[in-house]
Design goal:
The protein has 477 residues and is mostly helical. Among the domains are: 99 residues, no CATH class; 212 residues, no CATH class. The protein is built from 22 helices and no strands. The longest helix has 30 residues.
């Protein structure tokens, strides 16, 4: 994420964020919390600091992730600069550094390469024109087509990149419409909505998915295959997407609007473009068929990286300009989870609430709603980074106590999808900000629809996901 000149200075919010981070970091060193170890106090200090920095973005999100890794090495690892208490088995410092090479990061990196290649060889825009043709000229059907295409793209490309691509397609359309035509709102708002929802559908769709999968594997040893994630989440994603289309169509779309879309396509047939098409198709096919060949989706994700670098489908300049900051952010979340788990902070936090007195539906609602509310005001990735470690520890605690009605797999997906469906404000997610910047959407419109979509998604997941996942057998993991 690049910052313009006007954002380069120390704004009041950033200054407050830095002061809050310093204050929160100091609290566990000043006050002693009952039943929390010395090392637990240190990790709690890092965790509280991270909350302030992630919420206010006083420093870049990936910088906070790097700071988390360094502080945990210096305070609780076998190379700690502070004395460690007797009886505490310090994790090796490499545990925290290894978060930067977690296999989940390779899965996400493969998604970056495919997204950049699609943009470079204009596969994305040409596919949009091909896929929109069957929807004809009916405004409602065109709206549905745009949302379906956006949702599909965001399953394999970053939500931000997908939104940028699709907004570029939509802008010429709304430019031909009268300013007072509310269809402009529907067409623009449909893109970030579909991108946020579509990103839920695959492990590579959005960072919260990768954060949840990484923590799930690290904490419980459970790995969810690419196709299993799709089986678990896609039915809900499709229902929410259809509901979002219905709402946008009824609230904003005018039946008298005439929409013309330029459908001329010109696919790049150069040798490099063809090689990219083959690489992308092979990667996606291997992801879909993981249960058949047994090759981990993380390993498959590294395939386009190797092919595209060795054949120069991606140049050195393009390689350096990729979203490396996102990978650091995911790594920071994984490292935070390691520290919370190894220091006992997770057990202490969970012990503050009498979870045993709550039913599985109440726990599910709490996890999902916490992610939904927090994800509305801070980035989805930061939300997942903050909540996933606690959720994983909660799942382990419930399993140990005999309450197996809600497994680690379910909690991980609740948090990831609760984060993704938080889209009530322009600041909730970059796709929303991109749409808001067009000037066609007001904050009120985004807030109303975002609240509706979030509430519908929460109801759907909280009440229907567990029976469905029980039928699939995933809650037994």
């Amino acid at each position: 994420m690049s910052a313009g000149k006007k954002n380069a200075g120390m704004t009041p919010v950033k200054l407050i964020g830095l002061l809050a981070a310093a204050l929160l970091f100091s609290i566990p060193f000043i006050f002693q919390f009952e039943n929390l170890s010395v090392t637990g106090h240190r990790v709690l200090a890092v965790f509280l600091m991270a909350i302030a920095l992630w919420i206010t973005e006083a420093i870049p999100l990936h910088a906070t992730a790097a700071l988390i890794i360094l502080l945990q090495i210096l305070m609780v690892s076998d190379k700690a600069m502070l004395p460690l208490p007797e009886g505490f088995t310090a994790p090796k410092f490499t545990v925290f550094f290894n978060s930067l090479s977690n296999p989940v990061l390779m899965l996400f990196l493969g998604g970056f390469f495919l997204a950049d290649g699609a943009a470079k060889y204009k596969l994305d825009k040409n596919l949009v024109k091909v896929l929109i043709r069957p929807f004809g000229n009916n405004p409602s059907r065109i709206l549905l087509g745009l949302m379906m295409i956006t949702g599909i793209f965001s399953m394999f490309m970053s939500n931000t990149a997908t939104t940028a691509t699709m907004i570029a397609v939509v802008l010429p359309i709304i430019a031909r419409l009268p300013v007072e035509d509310r269809s402009r709102i529907a067409l623009v708002l449909a893109i970030p909505t579909a991108a946020n929802i579509g990103g839920m559908g695959t492990p590579v769709g959005t960072p919260p998915n990768a954060i949840a999968l990484g923590a799930l594997a690290a904490k419980t040893g459970v790995s969810i295959s690419f196709i299993d994630w799709m089986l678990m989440v896609m039915p809900f994603m499709l229902v929410i997407l259809a509901f979002a289309w219905f709402v946008l169509d009824r609230l904003f779309m005018s039946r008298d609007t005439k929409i013309d879309i330029e459908l001329d396509t010109q696919f790049d047939t150069s040798p490099k473009a063809v090689l990219f098409y083959i690489t992308a198709a092979a990667t996606i096919l291997l992801w879909f068929t993981e249960p058949l060949h047994g090759i981990s989706s993380n390993i498959v994700g590294f395939l386009p990286v190797v092919v595209m670098l060795s054949t120069r489908l991606i140049t050195d300049k393009e390689f350096h300009s990729m979203q490396w900051s996102v990978l650091w952010l995911v790594a920071g979340g994984i490292a935070m989870g390691d520290g919370i788990g190894k220091s006992g902070v997770d057990t202490w936090l969970i012990g503050l609430v009498n979870w045993e007195a709550m039913g599985s539906s109440a726990i599910a609602a709490g996890m999902f709603m916490a992610a939904l509310l927090l994800g509305t005001v801070i980035s989805h990735s930061a939300t997942a980074n903050l909540l996933v470690p606690i959720g994983m520890s909660l799942a382990t605690s419930l399993s140990t106590s005999g309450n197996a009605s809600l497994g680690a797999v379910a909690i991980a997906i609740f948090i990831a999808n609760g984060s993704s469906i938080a889209m009530a404000l322009p600041i909730s997610t970059p796709p929303n900000a991109i749409a808001y910047a067009t000037g066609a959407v007001k904050t009120k419109d985004m807030a109303i629809t975002g609240i509706i979509f979030g509430a519908f998604g929460a109801i759907l997941f909280i009440f229907l996901s567990q029976p469905y996942w029980n039928w699939l057998g995933v809650l037994d993991k």
